[in-house]
Structures are given as C-alpha cells and as structure tokens.
Amino acid sequence: MTVRTEKSGAVWTMILSRPEARNAVNPEHAIELYDAFLAFDRDDSASVAVFTGDSGVFCAGFDLKVAAKGGEQNRLSELAFPEPDDGRHLRGPMGPTRLELTKPVIAAIEGPAVAGGMELALWCDMRVMGASAYMGVYCRRWGVPLIDGEGRARDIILTGRKVMAEECYRIGLCERLVPDGEARQVAEELAQELARLPQICLRADRRSINLQEGKSEREALRLEYENSAGVVALEGAAGAARFAAGAGRHGERAEPSFL
Fold first, then answer.
1. 3-state helix/strand/coil string of 185-219
2. Are residues 33 and 95 located together in one domain of the fold?
3. Where do runs of H (alpha helix) occur along 78-182?
4. What per-residue confidence (pLDDT) applies to 231?
5. 167/70 same-domain check
6. CB count, 10 Å around CB of 203?
7. Which domain holds residue 163?
8. Average pLDDT over the chain, rounded to whole?
9. What region, left, alpha or beta, does residue 151 occupy, with left being phi > 0 and alpha being psi -120 to 50 degrees?
10. Per-residue pLDDT tens digits for 229-244
11. 96 and 149 belong to one structural domain
C-alpha cells in the first residue's frame, strides 16, 4: 500500500508513501488515495483529515514514467474514472481532487508540492507549509497540462515557476507557515482544534462556501440560508443557551458541551 492512514481520535492522517518516486502518483496510487478519503468521509467517527507525504516530500505530481507509456496509461486511466453515483464522487487522475467531501482536509506540506501535487494541496481546505517547502506548476516544463483543480494566478500557471513557502503564505496559497519538519504536527494540532468544534455547524458553513462559488450575491445568500436553516435547531440553540448561562464571555473560549 502506498497510502497509510493513522488515526488519533476524530483526526485521520493520510500519508502518501512512495518515497522512491518522491510520492508521485500513478493510477493505482490515485485509486488508493481516493478510497482512503472516501472512507474518511463516510466514517462517522472521523471529523478532520490531515494529508501529508512521507520522507519530507508532499507530492511531485503525476508519475511521468507512466505518462510516457501511452498504452499503459490509457489502460490504467480507465480505472481512475468510475461512473459517479451522485455527481460528488468523481475520481480523477490524481485521485481525490474531483471528490466533494463533507468534512475538512488540511494539507501538511514539506518539500515539493508541484504539478499534480500542487493540485492535491489546493484541493485541501487549508495548507500548512514548512519554511523551505514549495509549490509550482512543474508539469509546464514537460508539456503536461493541468487536469484537476485551479491555480491562484495566471503567472504561476503559465510560467511554471517555483513558488516558495513564504510567497505561498504571502499570496494566500497556504494559511500557516512553520519551521521545516513541523508541518504535520501543526496541521494535526489544527485538525484536533477543528474536531473539537460543533461539527454540524462547521460542515454546514464549509458547504455554504462551496455552494456560493460562481453565484450572484442574492443567489449565494439564498443558498447559504437554505443550507444553514436547520443548524440552529440542531446545534445553535444549545450553543446559545450555554452562552446565556455564562460560557464564553469576555473572549474566553467555551468548549462544546459534547466533549
């Protein structure tokens, strides 16, 4: 297996483990990644996932040795495009990047997250990068197009240049910048923090963000209201009652009552 899953309570950590290929993804590897994240999304005991790579490398993209073998690539690629059962469970050449999860995923990035590896990183909800980690559309150098996800800027996409962690942080490609070797630890601490929050509300707000993409302001507001209408009854009323009873006053953090 080239994908390991380690569990700590409600946090699952998915680890790409193909160090001999700098964690490059081939079709079988893509399927393993897809299956791991689908299992996470369907497991009621799991709340937040951390996605990282083995041996100080996040992911060097799609395996170009496979891409160079046209016939084999076509045969294996058939495995990577199953018929979606509801339109949310598409699988792409990099695995989960067309999968619409209901729970958040945090990327813990050390070393390169380039080409398809950058697409995997951008698929995640949040990114924590080690200081010398970097992104880049390196597939540009070999005439291989982007096939999943979207980049932040035409400059990065068209030039294929290296984007170091500090620039990624400055322009919003990652949300946390940490010393080398600490990305996974910080990502898992962040994941545990998210897992302690009321999950129905967290997932509803995450879903609202996804629903609003490309919509007018009026339509986005309507979708947000419809998506969140039932959450007040399920979690919001109980939270408001705890606040009224004195929890969380004066900026103090109030832990959810279900902990």
1. HHHHHHHHHHHCCCHHHHHHHHHHHHHHCCCCHHH
2. yes
3. 116-123, 154-159, 165-171
4. 63
5. yes
6. 16
7. 3-195
8. 81
9. beta
10. 666 556 545 654 555 5
11. yes
